[in-house]
Amino acid sequence: MKLSAGQAVDVLRAAGEPTRLRILALLAREELAVLELCRVLDQSQPRVSRHLKLLAEAGLVERFPDGAWVFYRLTGAGQAGELVTETLARIDPADPALLRDAERLSAVRSERAQDAAEYFARNAARWDEIRSLYVSDAAVEAAILKAAGSGPFKRLVDLGSGTGRMLTLLGPQAEAALGLDLSQQMLNIARNHVAEVGLERCELRHGDIFGTRLPDESADLVVVHQVLHYLADPAAAVREAARIVAPGGRLIIADFAPHGLEFLREQHQHRRLGFAEPEMGRWLAEAGLAKVRITSLPPARKQGLTVKIWTAERGREGQRTAA
Ligand SMILES: C[S@@+](CC[C@H](N)C(=O)[O-])C[C@H]1O[C@@H](n2cnc3c(N)ncnc32)[C@H](O)[C@@H]1O
């Protein structure tokens, strides 16, 4: 439905202020926490929060709390969202203020990426032990096997494959497998694990989920196991994972349900403290997948976490999979 003239004025008024326009331009790049916005804009938290409140009231940004942090993302959809997207697209990318913000955001991102890379390099040898601190590995693996179905699979792709646990679990049912990971240290350990179980035709590739561009619809089983909570743009990773799912193929995402263990952010590089079902459901639907099923695995111990396993499918050609 079109905006009324009054609504258009509200949207333009909310966006029509230099800092708020800069905030919209930043959120068009990725979802950001308030403190990250403050750093990039070099403005105090009360000021930035005031601007964000106005943008949220006008329906231009969406606020979502995550543990003790609050993130914001562009609403994007609807007439108001489209008006903002069109406005941003008309601004010269070389505009000095926006360019400076983009550079600062890039510095914040590099810092984050560096911290994560150091964390995985430091902990690669202990990763299997760390993974089992908060969840029951056996229960998760049984649920993953069930979610994958009986196979055999032509091509398995494991995005953020780490030490290769999903490859050794599901690889025996696959004709060919690919594990992609940013950390050489994790990949080195995965190489040993894959060799130990005698997986043939299993490639371990060093690369970024967002930069490697695997071929469209090329895998009938795609797995993203305990990776999304590290990422700045988990929705984009879901889109990327869905893009490579072949017609009739399946995507399995395993991650935590929303939780409040802030120390995982501080000490273990988690960015998001879990994902809510509606959020993940929306991302999967927007990525063109259907038949979403969710398995919930309660914590195995006192300070444990609930693991969610989302399974979704791409319809076969010429046939839309019923949701
Ligand atoms: C928590 S580990 C999970 C590993 C494995 N899936 C498992 O469950 O044991 C997350 C892995 O994602 C990798 N990773 C993080 N960001 C990535 C990215 N943008 N592209 C590829 N791998 C990434 C890290 O290097 C790390 O090995």
From TrEMBL:
Listed GO MF terms: DNA-binding transcription factor activity; S-adenosylmethionine-dependent methyltransferase activity
Q: Name one Pfam family in it.
A: HTH_5
Alphabetical list of Gene3D superfamilies matching this protein: Vaccinia Virus protein VP39, Winged helix-like DNA-binding domain superfamily/Winged helix DNA-binding domain
Q: Which InterPro entries match?
A: ArsR-like_HTH, HTH_ArsR_DNA-bd_dom, Methyltransf_11, Methyltransf_Superfamily, SAM-dependent_MTases_sf, WH-like_DNA-bd_sf, WH_DNA-bd_sf
Domain of life from the UniProt record: Bacteria
Instruction: Give start and end of each HTH arsR-type domain.
Output: 1-95
Q: Which CDD domains match?
A: AdoMet_MTases, HTH_ARSR
Q: Which PANTHER family did the record assign?
A: METHYLTRANSFERASE, N6-ADENOSINE-METHYLTRANSFERASE TMT1A
Q: NCBIfam families of this UniProt entry?
A: HTH_metalloreg
Q: What is this protein called?
A: ArsR family transcriptional regulator
Origin species: Phenylobacterium hankyongense
